[in-house]
Design brief:
Blueprint: H1 3-13, H2 18-34, H3 38-52, H4 58-81, H5 86-94, H6 99-115, H7 119-127, H8 132-148, H9 152-160, H10 165-181, H11 185-193, H12 198-214, H13 218-226, H14 231-247, H15 251-259, H16 264-280, H17 284-292, H18 297-313, H19 317-325, H20 330-346, H21 350-370, H22 375-384, H23 392-407, H24 411-419, H25 424-440, H26 444-458, H27 464-480, H28 486-496, H29 501-543, H30 562-567
Helix pairs in contact: 1-2, 2-3, 2-4, 3-4, 4-5, 4-6, 5-6, 6-7, 6-8, 8-9, 8-10, 9-10, 10-11, 10-12, 11-12, 12-13, 12-14, 13-14, 14-15, 14-16, 15-16, 16-17, 16-18, 17-18, 18-19, 18-20, 19-20, 20-21, 20-23, 21-23, 23-24, 23-25, 24-25, 25-26, 25-29, 26-29, 27-28, 27-29, 28-29
């Protein structure tokens, strides 16, 4: 025993109070252990325990005994093992009375032994832990240490002794990832596939796929992903792999990988990611190819439409139309063309917008004629009706083109487009929008004339109840905006007293027009725009009525072929 310790020990042994002497001896034992002095530490610990026995107060004696024999003894053992004094540390730990403290100390000693590569004594200590859960926890902690220091073979030996399936699966997962990080791919995959817990096995294999892809081992990565049973996890793996191959410029391979995803929604997600990447790279041909590989019909249509809209922005209308024509669903194709037309109008590409609208009408006419049974009847209708059975997509497209032309103050063209619309609601909204812009430009006479035509068109809506309700609401709001003139209030009351609904519709329309002529043209036109927009949102499919002749005293605008308008743009 070193001289300084001898001197300190001599002083401590001279302490009269047994409790103070026992505590001082225990602290000296700990200090000795911290210095790596195994034999002195063990000897002084025993003297401390002997001193405890001389404490007169039974309660204090038991508390002190418990603390020194368990807590302080464990501290000494753990300190000693850091100096490779495993034999002495193990002996001290084995003497700890409290089982959980004793086994926790064994675990700590075993951990330090594993750090130094002493696997056999380490396993011997682990075997002394009788609680299976605590034994697995100790082994798992050792596995973490071994994996962190690239000793996967030793970590695997520890895994073989694990009992708890989840703990073992997590440990194997960590080993597999480490093996992949060190480019031992075959071993990594084998370890990952040996994991029992399905979710952990899938996660480990997913990491394998990423690591393989990052190392440009794409074929092996795809093989691993394809072997996964869970379709959701497999889809996630293939999506990640497809993204990595896109970044690597392997476009065909990326599409092939994403196309192999079994779940349609996830396949669509992956292919949409690829389309977005292609669009960002201005690779439109590959974007179209990826979009056409999508199996989920609605997603395919939506994605093709996005590509076409992008092409419209680039002033490539013909290519955009060609993309939309690949959509097999007829109604979806028409809706997409209408959106293209609106997109072109919004960006000031009116020639393109009108060309697409004309194409829509041609498609619509061809569909209508094809559904007619008699050839003679087809020829008669074609000769007498410029556009057969116009649907909402055409009307909406023309409505938006007219509106945007008016925003550019190209009023003559806007009016001609608006007058070519068959749908009463769309024509009303377009004419009212142009009226608002005309009034804003100070062209009040034109605004009033347009508003008159808009109100006349509005009266062609087939649902009488909704038409009457909308005109009544419009009249009330317009009248309330007329400051101080009670004559309009009285007129409104008289109109509301009418019993015949069609007479009331005519009277309300006349009242609204009179308010516009009295100086509220812009306000009334704006109210009409909002009224129609609301009806379109709520009832558009049910309100469209084809022109059949005059309604009331207002003439019906002649429907003009869009090609005539195009010729003059």
């Amino acid at each position: 025993m070193a001289q300084p310790i001898d001197q300190t020990l001599e002083k401590i042994l001279a302490i009269a109070d047994a409790y103070q002497r026992a505590e001082a001896l225990a602290e000296l034992a700990i200090e000795s252990a911290k210095g790596g002095l195994a034999a002195p530490a063990a000897e002084i610990l025993q003297r401390s325990i002997q001193a405890v026995a001389t404490i007169e107060d039974a309660s204090l004696r038991e508390l002190t005994k418990w603390d020194i024999e368990n807590t302080k003894a464990a501290t000494i053992a753990i300190q000693l093992t850091q100096f490779d004094e495993d034999e002495q540390a193990t002996a001290i730990a084995a003497a700890i009375p409290r089982a959980d403290q004793r086994e926790a100390t064994f675990a700590q000693i075993a951990f330090h032994q594993a750090q130094r590569g002493k696997l056999e004594p380490m396993f011997g200590l682990i075997a002394k832990i009788t609680n299976p859960g605590k034994r697995d926890e100790a082994l798992a902690m050792i596995v973490d240490e071994l994996v962190a220091s690239d000793r996967c073979d030793q970590a695997m030996q520890c895994c073989e002794r694990l009992i708890d399936g989840i703990i073992k699966s997590v440990a194997l997962e960590k080993i597999a990832i480490k093996l992949a990080e060190t480019k031992q791919y075959d071993r990594a995959i084998a370890v990952a596939q040996s994991i029992e817990a399905g979710s952990r096995r899938a996660y480990a294999l997913e990491e394998m796929v990423v690591k393989l892809a990052e190392a440009k081992q794409y074929a092996q990565a795809q093989t691993v992903a394809q072997a996964v049973e869970d379709p959701t996890i497999k889809a996630r793996m293939l999506r990640s792999l497809a993204a990595i191959t896109i970044d690597a410029g392997l476009y065909d391979q990326a599409i092939d990988i994403a196309s192999r995803i079994e779940e349609r929604s996830r396949q669509a997600d992956a292919l949409t990611d690829i389309v977005i990447a292609f669009l960002a790279d201005h690779n439109y041909d590959m974007a179209i190819e990826a979009a056409n590989a999508i199996l989920e019909v609605d997603r395919k249509i939506s994605t093709l439409e996005q590509i076409a809209l992008k092409l419209v922005q680039l002033d490539e209308g013909d290519r955009a139309i060609a993309v939309i024509k690949t959509i097999t669903d007829a109604q979806a194709r028409k809706t997409a063309l209408a959106r293209l037309s609106v997109q072109a109008a919004q960006s000031g590409q009116f020639e393109m917008a009108l060309a697409i609208a004309q194409l829509l009408r041609q498609i619509n006419q061809a569909e209508a004629v094809a559904n007619m049974p008699m050839v003679e009847e087809q020829e008669t209708i074609i000769q007498t009706t410029p556009f057969v059975n116009e649907d909402a997509s055409v009307s909406y497209s023309l409505q938006e083109i007219a509106t945007h032309l008016a925003e550019y103050r190209q009023f003559d063209k806007a009016i001609r487009v608006a007058r070519s619309i068959e749908s009463p609601l769309s024509k009303t909204k377009a004419l009212a929008e142009i009226a608002v812009r005309s009034a804003d430009a100070g062209q009040y006479d034109q605004a009033i004339e347009l508003l008159r035509r808009a109100i006349a068109s509005f009266q062609k809506v087939k649902n009488e109840f909704l038409l009457l309700s909308a005109l009544t609401e419009l009249s009330i709001e317009a009248t309330s905006n007329n400051d101080g003139d009670r004559q309009y209030d009285q007129n409104l009351q008289q109109v509301q007293a009418l019993e015949d609904s069609m007479e009331k519709v005519k009277a309300l329309a006349a009242l609204v027009l009179s308010l516009a002529e009295a100086g509220q043209v812009q306000e009334v036109a704006e109210l009409l725009v909002h009224t129609v927009a609301k009806l379109q949102d709520e009832h558009f499919p049910h309100l469209i009525k084809k022109p059949e002749g005059e309604v009331g005293d207002e003439p019906i605008d002649e429907i003009e072929d869009i090609n005539n308008i195009l010729d003059q743009l």
